[in-house]
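Exercise 3.2. Students should predict the tertiary structure of the chain below and write it as structure tokens, then compare their answer with the key that follows.

Predict this chain's 3D structure.
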Amino acid sequence: MDLGIRGRRALVCASSRGLGLGCARALAGAGVDLVMNARGAEALESAAAAIRQEFGVAVVTVAADITTDAGRAAVLGAADEVDILVTNAGGPPPGMWTDWERADFIAALDANMLTPIALIKALVPGMMARGWGRVVNITSQSVKAPIPILGLSNAARTGLTGYVAGTARQVAGKGVMMNNLLPGIHATDRAVSLDSGVAEREGITLEEARARRCATIPAGRYGTPEEFGAACAFLCSQHAGFIIGQNILLDGGAINATF
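Answer key:
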């Protein structure tokens, strides 16, 4: 399917690996030029070089922490007049409700709620003025079904979801479609980190922890960054102009719910 976005320009955050890289590659495959951001310069440059070689699109890289004022300023300086924004940032650490203090919640809100909002406020007005834009926020399945050990993520990402629900409907009339993608477990570094924590706590191997989690997923496996990226690219496409303010699960059926 031709997604109808060849020649568009996208900012994809946290895109040197994992789900962000999956989104960047899928957009590049559709002919979209990229601004790629991540904290680690070496991994970022390696990912960007591979994309340039494979897809022939223009790629600008900005190695910076998108959750800081200085990092956002650097990224936005390179991403003026983008047509597509994919927000993404690593999730806060797992733990128990007794572990977290105010500073922990502030850090989680800064990374997973306030940073996407700042990027939306900076870039969406230009999209509206030009009459076309797409915003995809990578959140989590936890906004549909909270995960007890990820309370910081539950809180911050649910806050972003509420913000997007109202904002998406205010900007749609100007040609800007804003939606959220809610990943379940995917084969990324984040999965390794979470499974390693389970293995350590319960005295089992990493492979056993992974098999145990797979058994809870109707699809029987972890998702891949490639299929996640394909879903993101479709939401950014010319064909997604009637999808507004939605929260789309990619969890292999793990959440057992009608709606």
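Discussion points: The radius of gyration is 18 Å. Helices lie at 18-29, 41-55, 69-78, 102-130, 151-171, 189-202, 206-214, 225-235.
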